[in-house]
Amino acid sequence: MLDFVKTLTQTQKNAIIIGIDSVLIVVSLVLAMGTQFGFVEGWVYAKGYLVVLPYLLVIAAGLSIWLGICSIQLNAYDTGSIVITAVFATLLGFSSVALSTAANMQFPVAANMTFALFLFVFCVLSRAILLQIVLAIYRRSDAHLRVLIYGAGSTGTQLVSALRNHKQIEAVAFVDDNTALHGLTLSSLPILTPVRIKEISAEKKIDRVLLAMPSLSQPKQAQIAHRLQKMGLEVQAVPSFSQLIGEDALVDKLTPIEPSLFLNRDEVSETFDEARDSYAGRNILISGGGGSIGSELCRQILEAQPTKLVIFELSELALFNIDMEMRQQAEHSNIEIIPVLGSITDAKHVRKLLQDHDIHVVLHAAAYKHVPLVESNALAGLSNNVLGTQVLAQESAKAQIERFVLISSDKAVRPANVMGASKRLAEQVVQDLASRVPAGQGPIFSMVRFGNVLGSSGSVVPLFQDQLRRGGPLTVTHSDMARYFMTVQEAVTLVLRAGAMASGGEVYVLDMGKPVSIEKLARQVVESAGYSVKEKSNPEGDIEIVFTGLRPGEKMIEELTLTGNLEGTVHKKIFFSDEARLSEIEVAAATRALREALRKRDDVGACDVARRWVEGYASVPDQPAPTQSTTADS
Known about the structure:
The structure is a single chain. The protein is α/β, with parallel strands linked by helices. Strands 9-8-7-10-11-12-17-22-21 form a nine-stranded mixed β-sheet, sandwiched between helices. Strands 3-4-2-1-5-6 form a six-stranded mixed β-sheet, with helices on both faces. Strands 14-20-19 form a three-stranded parallel β-sheet. The two termini are about 60 Å apart. About 40% of the residues are buried.
C-alpha cells in the first residue's frame, strides 16, 4: 500500500480528491433534501435533481482546480485551507440555486444553503480522515519512528502538535518529573512517570526520547540524556520555540574558552624576536610536530623564516593536520615544508633524515606524556621517551647540527610516576652528550623544563569541558591537588628563547607563577560556562565536583628543581638549574639495561632501571587502567 501511495503523481492525487468531493456533493444533497422535506419526500426531490447534478459536478471540479482545493497537501491543511473550503461550498450552494432555478425545480434556497453547509463539514472531515489514513500507511512502514516526549510543558505540547502530521514519526506518550501531572492526558497522550521510563520504552516500543525542556540548564539536560542513553535509548534535545524563530540565540553555551582565562596570572605576551637569528635561514626539525607543543613550535618557527621545516611525527592524522596548516601559513613564502612519518626510535631513519635535509636545529618535543597511560605502559613509555631521545640526540651529534633543545617536564623532578622518570632519564642522556661535546665543536644541547600546558590534548581544561558537556560531574583526584600552568603560546616562546641563549648542557626552568588549585580550576570552568557548582551550600547547582582519590604515580604538587635553587638568566622568565648529572658510564649502563628490558619485554625490569638511576623515584610499578578522573597530569 505504501508503494502505491508513493507512486501517485500530483495529477492522480488531485483526481482522487475531486472524486471524493464529488461523492460528498451527492451525499450532502441527499442529506440536505432529507433534512428539508423529510426522507420520503426528499428522496423524490433527489431523483428530480439528477437532471442538473452532472452540471453541478462539472462546476465543482472547475472550482476545485481554480481555488486549488484539490492540490492542498493533507499535512498542510490549515485554517487558510478551511476558509477556501468554505468559499468552495458557498459557491457550489449558489451554483445549485442557479441550476435548480434554470431547470424550473421547486427547490428552496434554504435547502441549497443546507447543502453547502453539509458539504463544507464533510470536506473538512474528509481531509482529516484522509490524513490519518495516509499517516497510518506510512507509519506501518519500516521507517516508522515512535518517540516519547520528556517534558509536558509548552514545548512538548507544540512538539506533539507538529508531529501529528509527520509521516514517519509518532508521538506515543509524555513523561514528566512533575508528579502532579502523572496520570493526566495532554494532547490526547498520557503523561507518565520517568521512573518507569525503561519499562514504558519496552512496552510502547519507543525508538527515541525527545527532551522538550529548553528552559532546563544544559548540564541538567545532559545528565538526563546520559541516564537515558545508559538504558540504550536514543536521545535528542528540542530547542525552544523562541530559539527556532530567532528570538533567542540557538548557540551552545559551552563554546571554547581561552586557556589564558584560567592562568590566574598575566600571560607572557612577548615574542622571541631577539632569538630569531638562531632559527632564521636554518633547516629546522621538530620531532612530535603534530602534538600540542610541537604544532605550536611549528607555527612560531615559521614566523622566524627558516629555509626548511621538517615535521617529524608518529601519528599520521596529527602529521596530516599540521602539514596542511603549515602549508597554508607558508603559502606566500619560500619556506619548504616537509612532513615525515616515523619514530624517533628508528636510528637509521633518523640518521637519513638529518643527512638528507641538512638539519641545523632539532627541537625535540616527541614524547609519551599522559601519566596514567604511561604508568600502565611503562616499557613503551621508557623506550620512546628515553631511548628515542638518545637516538635523536646521538644522531644529531654525529650530523654536527647547531642546536638541540629537549622539551622536558616538571614531572622529571623527583618523579612519582613512570612518565616523569622517563623524562628525567631523557634529560640525563642529553646532559651526558652535552658534557662530551668540545666547546664550539658540536651541537649545543639544552633542556627546557616547564609544567602543564593549558588546552593541550588530554590536559585538564579540555577534560573538564568535556565532562561539563556531558552534564558532569567534574572529577578531581584530591582537593589539595595543585599544578603549574602555562599556555602553549607562552611556553613555546620561552622555549625558543632559552634554546637560543644556551651554550651547552643547561637545564632551563620557566617561570610559571604559583601553582593553581585543580579544584579552583574546576570551579572556574563551571562558572565561566555560565553555570553554578552543586554542593552542600548550593544543592540546586548545575554541576557537581567529585573527588576520586589519588591515582598511582600522582603527586600533590610538582617541583621545578632538584636543589630548590634557581639562577637567573638574561630573561626574567627563564631560569637556570644547576643539577647533578650521571656520568657517561652510568648513562651507558642505564640505557643498556633499558634496551635489555625492551628486548625481553620486561616492564618490571624497565621500571627497576628508572628506580636505580633517577633520583627520588621509588615508585612500585603498577598497572592501573587508564581513567578519566581529572588532574593536570597529562
